[in-house]
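JOB MANIFEST
job_type = single_chain_structure
chain_count = 1
residues = 237
[input]
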Amino acid sequence: MPLQAVEPQRLYRQIAEQLRSLLVKGEYAVGARLPAERDLARQFGVSRPSVREALIALEVEAWVEVRTGSGVYVLDRSSRQAANEPLGGAEWGPLELIRARRLLEGETAAIAAQQAKRKDVQAMQQAIDTMAEEAASGEIPQGGDRAFHSAIVQAGGNGVLIETVQNFYDARRGPIFTRLGGHFENAKSWQAAIDEHQAILTAIRDHDAPAARAAMHAHLDNSHARFSASWCRTKRT
């Protein structure tokens, strides 16, 4: 029989598979709370962000439920139409993706500070204004957010970088990133992102490449921190 290509598996998928195996074997009973992320990370010998991505993947697959303000609990799959097959491994881990964006977009912001024309700066400001309008109407302001990051890389005029940044951004539309955002994105976090974007734009408008790079790094570091907040924090109202 013909051999099939073997694809490398993302780390969070490997963690999710091991946890799923333990759930199938009854290692954790229905309704039980899973160990804390830091404890699972220690047991697996991996980072806490990788564990978080694995837990979100299992929540999407209806193996567990994340209860903000409490923890992660095992679901009863016997009485629900739950997915029997795990998600495909093609989706990038959200927190890993943010770290990759930090490396790339810090440089595209610095390039924009050196090369942006008036029309590019206007496009960035319009994108921020769109984000504010979307947020004010109760929408998740991803349209303006994408337009802002796209306007920055477009100012550099490099087609490869433009496509790469846009593809990186669009990866957040996957089920794992979407579910993670559902737990941690809110009006307060989006207002913080808008303010961070304005700081990036100020540096670009001033043609200050080091400041633009630093502002983009700060924005994506803050994004990573927002998505890494404790499950057991005080539940938001």
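[summary]
The beta strands are 64-67, 71-74.
The mean pLDDT is 88.
exit_status = 0
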